Every structure is written in structure tokens, then in C-alpha cells.
Amino acid sequence: MNPPTAFIAGWPVAHSRSPLIHRFWLAQHGIDGDYVRAPVAPEGLDAFLATIGAAGYVGGNVTVPHKQAALQSCDEVTATARRLGAVNTVWLDGGRLWGDNTDVHGFAANLDARLPRWRNGAAALVIGAGGASRSVVGALLEAGFADIVVLNRTAERAHAIAADFGSPVRGGALQRLADELGAADLVVNATAAGMGDAAALEIDWRAARPDAIATDIVYVPLRTAFLRGAAARGLAVVDGLGMLLHQAVPGFERWFGVRPVVSDELRRRVAADIGV
Length: 276
Ligand code: ATR
Hints:
- The protein is of the alpha/beta class.
- The chain has 12 helices and 12 strands.
- Helix 5 (103-114) crosses helix 6 and helix 5 crosses helix 10 (241-247).
- It is globular and about 60 Å long.
- The structure holds 2'-monophosphoadenosine-5'-diphosphate.
- 2'-monophosphoadenosine-5'-diphosphate is lined by residues 128-133, 152-154, 157, 191-193, 198-199, 201.
């Protein structure tokens, strides 16, 4: 039998750090397996996922732009994936293709590891209304936040998230940031603003509570302008690299049978590869 192999299917997929993460754990646990990049165009996703068993895969990840479409290709999905309308992890069980969304776990587990007191919070402010924002909102609901406001440059997308998730999620325009910031125990940047060379969000952190926590889903750069601004106001900050690492844990466990640990060494390796 061939060594168990998992994939990451995306379009494009060359930039993905997931092979580095999973190969680190495979070597660490002495598992004879592999994790490979699978460039899959949108029109080929359904056929690809329908034949992963025949192709010798035990499962894999799907990433941009496939996370919504993959939900339709699965025979069964977890409650979390259904609620988000997006799948990022698939595996075979009894010949049926299962899908889960581990970004929700990744967001919460990163904060659990770095700043466990985040769970004491009641009010959260989430900036951005794309797929990443939905994962964050899912995690905040599971953590029991009583007030979750989603603000977005395009207000309609924030209102759509509020409508999809229902109470206690509210939506609004990014212009409301100054009004909402002062109530937040947790402030999340779930936008692509500040990623790479993209312009950062303009935030006047003076309105924020000094005991609030700020976290970013962006990890290039590791210390974003968003996090620097929050830290300058005295907020505790958690960068986004851990979310990438922690979202990989449940998939590895399903495919290879061992629950791996997000260690400092893994974090250093991935940070070095990203060049941060
Ligand atoms: P993802 O699935 O990674 O969340 P996305 O669906 O493209 O990606 O969403 C990107 C998010 O970043 C959106 O909330 C987007 O705002 P719009 O919905 O108005 O486009 C937000 N975003 C990107 N660049 C931004 C910027 N310069 N300022 C504010 N928001 C920005």
C-alpha cells in the first residue's frame, strides 16, 4: 500500500505553507506519509474531490477559491461547516466524503494558546465580512460572546453575515468603528487590509478599552499596523500566524491518526519560511 498522502487543493496553490506544516509533523511523528500541493481549477474541483480515494489520497485541505464549492461536493459535512457554508478540510470515512471547517477551531485555539482570558470577553468587534470573518464569527458564537458586531467597508456584506448567523450578531458599515470600538473586549481584523503592501485600516485606538485584546488574521507581516496601533494603546495583541498553524491540527489527526502539537519550533520554521 502506498504511504498515506493528503493534499491541499487550491487555484493557485504554490504559495501555501500547509505542506511545510504537515511535513514537519509527519517527520516529528516518524509517519511514512506525505502532504502535497494539488493545483485544481474551479471547474475541476467536483471531479477532483469525487476521485480522491481512487487517486490514493486519505483526504486534504481545500483553499481559495474552493471553500464554498467544496461544501457541495461533500457527502456529509459537520455542523460547523454547514453553519459557515464553507469547507476547508475533507476526509474519507466508509467511502463517503466528509467536510469540516477547521478555521473556526484555528481562530479559537490560537487565542487559547496565547491569551486564554479572551474567553472572558462578552463583546466582540469584527472588522471585515469575507470568508475569514465568517470563521471568526463562528468561533465567537461557540465561545459564547453575547454581542458580536461585524463592520465592513461594504456594509451589505456585514449585514448578510448578521442575517445568516442571527442574534447576537449585528452588522454595520466600517464608519461605525469609532462608535463600537469602546465597548469591545476583543477586536479582530478579518480584512485583507494591511496584508503585504496593502494599505492598513485607519483606526483611532484611543477609543478602545486598555484591557481589550486585539487579534489579526493577517500574518504577513506578523506584526501588522493594526496590532502595532493596538499595542501602542496598551492592548494585549495576538498575531494571526497561530490561526494558520492551529487550523491544521484537526486535519492531520483525521488523516494520519495522531493529534499534533503546535510547538514554538513549528512556529519558528513557518515564520522563517514566510520571511517574518
Ligand atoms: P476572505 O475570504 O479572506 O475573508 P474576501 O472575501 O476577499 O476574503 O474578504 C476580504 C475582506 O477584506 C472584505 O471584508 C473586504 O471588504 P469589502 O467587502 O468591502 O471588499 C476587506 N478589505 C480588503 N481590503 C480592504 C481595505 N483596504 N479596507 C477595508 N476593508 C478591506
